[in-house]
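Weekly modeling sync, notes
Attendees: S.R. (lead), two postdocs, one rotation student

Agenda item 3: backlog of single-chain predictions. S.R. asked that every request posted to the team notebook include the full sequence so nobody has to chase files. The rotation student volunteered to paste the first one in as an example of the format we agreed on. Action items at the bottom.

Example entry:
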Amino acid sequence: MNILNKAFETNYNTAPFSKISNEDYIPAFEEAIADTKKEIEDIVGIDQAASFENTIEALSFSGLQLDRISNIFFNLHSAETNDEIEKMAVQIAPMLAELSSDITLNYDLFLRIKEIYDQKDNLTLSPEQDTLLTKYYRDFVRNGALLADDKKKELREIDQEMSVLKLNFAEHVLAETNAYRLHITEKANLDGLPENVVEAAHELAKEEGKEGWIFTLDYPSYIPFMTYASNRELRKELAIAAGKKGFQNNENNNEEVVLKMANLRHKRAKLLGYDSHAHFKLEERMAQDPKTVNSFLNDLLSKGKPAAIREFEELSKYAKEKDGIDHLEKWDASYYSEKLKQEKFNLDDEKLRPYFKLENVLNGVFEIAHRLYGLNFKEIHNIDKYHPEVQTFEVSNESGELVAIFYADFFPRKGKRNGAWMTSYKSQYEKDGHNERPHISIVCNFTRPTATKPSLLTFNEVTTLFHEFGHALHGMLADTVYPTLSGTSVYWDFVELPSQVMENWCYEEDALKLFAKHYETGETIPMEYIAKIKESASFLEGLATVRQLSFGLLDMGWHGQDPSAINNVKEFENEQFKSTQIYPDVKENVMSTSFSHIFDGGYSSGYYSYKWAEVLDADAFDYFKQEGIFSKEVAKKFKDNILSKGGTEHPMKLYKQFRGHEPSVDPLLKRAGLI
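Predicted structure, as returned to the notebook:
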């Protein structure tokens, strides 16, 4: 029997990575899909009246083995891919899309769900069961259960095509990222760059059999170069290379992919009776409709843009006085922002880096989780990893009971896409009296250790680690019955609350003292640095806010209307960015062709949720600050009402149970220095 199709005989029932070969995946998927279809047939064919237990509950626990196989395969597709995995993904994605359609378009199954839903007011259901029943009914209706047969066929075709296009998009972006190299042979062109960045670039050049230094579009290489390199022309070259991923005349061009995806999403929404893809998606979000989202974004824009314009003028004046720059360009933004920040606050990443050794930061976030939620983290070496760099931990509670298995994967590699994300290898659920605990992973692209230095993080990398760990806590502390409502299975504009609230501890003295220690001397970070971190937290916040809002508005531009009239991606973007444009346009660049959040991830019609969640997280952390940042009482409320509940109840109800009232926007505006 295929190793992927049977119970894993491993410690903690973890994925047996070392025993899985690429040849195992296709047969494993085929068998698991067939098993899932049989489970659905059994639900439909049972010779009993439809009940919650024999239909809704049975449906929730169907396909568990397929879910595990999918989690393993597609997580590796993001974190440790190769040509073979890429090819298989193109084959597997349509198979899964077809199965999904087989289930949601199964009219007999839908009739059983509808029968239960129609009598739900007379049933004795828990809040979680009520949510699950409502979710299934809506999911089936929203995915075509009531369509005529010819329309169902059309929907299937759209979903299959979309599954392949999504993969194509991601593969093109990764290929473009991996293809670019800035090869420097003259030492003078390294002026301004920190020693550790230069060392890492030299090591990469050696690995690739070249003299000199190599810089790439991977964030730990790209960001420092854009921030510190004094050679303006090279910054320009690198910035343009990053901005034209998927927008070049080669096999990785994503323009047609983007246009096809936007049009197919709209076509699908119209087929289901919605005005646009955004109307379809937002029906199941806290925001509920595009009008609310656009109003939210534009309201914040009206508050943030005046500050952004003032900051841009200040930055332009500074660059003119310092280096005679007449027109500030996008490749100047990070460089002069950092210079101005250093002058204003006498603080920069290179001063802070020695205090943020990766191991110390990781132990720090573990200690904070211990103080708040009573969690203990023990590194273990008795489970398989998909790469030697991955670290694995057993997570237990104060009673010594297993809470989760935690994987951490921190450094860039050729087979890993850019960015940072949290994912799950095994969901939490309760079945047959046993609470199955989750296997949670975070994947990042942090600064690598060098021959002379450990991995020393920028402050932005520190906040990224805390952010992803917040998502991880949402997964680890899940305590629901049904896997489909567990962990991060919540409304999309609620999912960023646990992650973004966690970032707040990075700015607090009592938290920083726990882990910000000099990697050589062990000295705790000086208090003056902590004061400056807090003081500089809102530095150029207006520009940052407008930039983020521009992404949300672009997303709504693609998905909140009929995109069929769009035939030029660049022209469309210029139109969408009119209200948020601060820096001059770069004709060689577009964003959409590498905007993975909305064309590869799950953020289509949802990018606004980062800002939406900022309102929630600022309000939530304000509660912690009132009672003390390590308040066990507030932490228990957050754990019991947010982290453990998953998607079992409406997020606003859960938030009000935690906070006592709906969120206020004032804490966010104050934190950002906008009021």
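Discussion: group reviewed the output briefly. The radius of gyration is 25 Å.
Action items: rotation student to repeat for the remaining queue; S.R. to check formatting next week.
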